[in-house]
Amino acid sequence: MLSSKRARVTAVLLFILAVLTFIVPYHLPGLRSATLHLASSTLHLSPATFHSSSTTSHSPTAVASPPSTVKPSSSSSSSPSVDWSRFAYVQYVTNFNYLCNSVMLFEILHRLGTKADLLMMYPADYELNDRTQEGELLLKAKNMYGVKLTPIQVQSRQGSDGYTWAKSYTKLLAFNQTQYDRVLSLDSDTTVLKLMDELFLLPSTPVALPRAFWLDPKEHKLTSLLVLVEPSEAEFKRVEKATEEAGPDDYDMEILNKVYGNSAMIIPHRKYGLLTRTFWEDHAIAYLGNDYEKWDPEKVIKEASLIHFSDWPVPKPWLSNKAKMEQVAPKCDGKQSQDCKAREIWFGLYEDFAKRRKEVCDLDVILVDEYGYPVDQGE
């Protein structure tokens, strides 16, 4: 009878011990260490038997998802810091009007708060003093907008049309600015609408450009209105050689297509290569990249970071011929609000350029006749 009672007590104790050892710890983790100590001392089991040596899980739910894209101005504790002094927006100057255009671009970039350097290549015969208009603008760029100035010998070559294309060849000197890891060269007849610092952080490649979407899509031509370059002696020699071999009607765009047409990284034209003529010429589908999206001038201008003034036969924005502007301006019959909005945006871009030209350079736009010759405003 006594042995039977002892057997029942032993069975109860073993049951309680089993509960404490194998069940309670998984519901009350705080009791686990104490329970394991009791179990090991009672059953002579090593605590190591219950020690988990698990490593990081590799299940799909445990792998961190890729970080969302952040603007260069954003900081991330998980990303290495960016040395923005290794990058620069570049402008090249060959005459006084292009000097003003370049200073206007740098004013915008400075005002928007770019972290990259601002570099201007200008003719070495310009005097860096306030006794000339050129000198005043150079000093303004340096002192007000933090622009780094680099004097150069303007490169030129005679074209078949009788004009020199110094502008085109000088632009290619961006490939030789090896003091930087990357430079972003912009045509000076553009307006910056948003910072483009994010382009400096694209994967490494010698050259990146947008497509010339307005040309024959079968040709896959690149446009040089915006060129992202990794300067190097080797690449500069390639471009220099192609320039020496170029025909009389080959300009910077033709040269870059010849050298990099099959290898350049493509930058989206939809954000970085908008033309003013897109608001009136029939190539909306080519710009949008599809035939299902409705043309919306407001949406297009809001998403763009850069717009290039290209409205032939309308002259460049520092010149003005109202008759030619009316000739090509987006039509507005007063019934279709989208048409009127395109017209407002288009004229607004030219008005904004004229306003900033006055504010930054203290220059008015130049009135020209139908042949592009300046008009005596006293007439």
Automatic annotation (TrEMBL):
Residues 54-81 have a biased composition (Low complexity). InterPro entries: GNT1/Glycosyltrans_8, Nucleotide-diphossugar_trans. This is Glycosyltransferase family 8 protein. It comes from the Eukaryota. Residues 54-82 are annotated as: Disordered.
